[in-house]
Amino acid sequence: EIVLTQSPATLSLSPGERAALSCRASQSVSSFLAWYQQKPGQAPRLLIYDASNRATGIPARFSGSGSGTDFTLTISSLEPEDFGDYYCQQRRLWPITFGQGTRLEIK
Amino acid sequence: EVQLVETGGGLIQPGGSLGLSCAASGFTVSSNYMNWVRQAPGKGPEWVSVLYTDGSTYYADSVKGRFTISRDNSNNMLYLQMNSLRAEDTAVYYCARGRELTLDFDFWGQGTLVTVSS
Predict the structure, then answer these.
(1) How far apart are CA B9 and CA B95, in angstroms?
(2) Does A60 touch chain B if contact means CB atoms closer than 8 Å?
(3) Under a CB-based contact definition with an 8 Å cutoff, are residues A8 and A103 in contact?
(4) CA gyration radius for chain A?
(5) Is A107 a residue whose pLDDT tops 90?
(6) What digits encode the pLDDT tens for the residues A67-76?
(7) Which residue of A has its CA nearest to B59?
(8) What integer pLDDT is reported at residue B78 of this predicted model?
(9) Are A92 and A30 a contacting pair, CB within 8 Å?
């Protein structure tokens, strides 16, 4: 099973700052990596697929990069609505796995 | 508009059975890869099962032999039959559509809570 390790566990930043969230895979997932945002009481929302492609309706301040085992989700300038939990997910190998998440908090 | 609505969650004793339903609208279930994903309290999501367009199914090892995914094409519904439930199956269960015949998940329901406890 591919283990996805996200860091940091918690990130405290202010609106307007830049956020960089990391996801590291225990073996190569090529570019088959997605990122999701989740707010309390809501389902996850797809942000990025195939490592660097924004999903429909996702603002341009969200970008993804990386391939193989190291990936980054960058939010260029944080808006108040960006705070929440973020998860990475791989579909390269069975079983599909998710990371344990990064909580993005308002500083 | 794409919409997924899950029903059927509740409190069930260990060893019991429960069936979840997911009503889809705005797209055709049988033309998409349909999934169940669960999330235990305070944890990240965990993929549970997929039903492909050709009818083939796959399960996480943690539920294999106990859970069954199925669909009703005429009513555009997805189901998850859960047997021999365990405390560790306690979670919010989401149905989720695979994006463009992949296993990223572009639409999710609001989820239904399953609590396994005596």
Answers:
(1) 12
(2) no
(3) no
(4) 13
(5) no
(6) 999 999 999 9
(7) A95
(8) 98
(9) yes
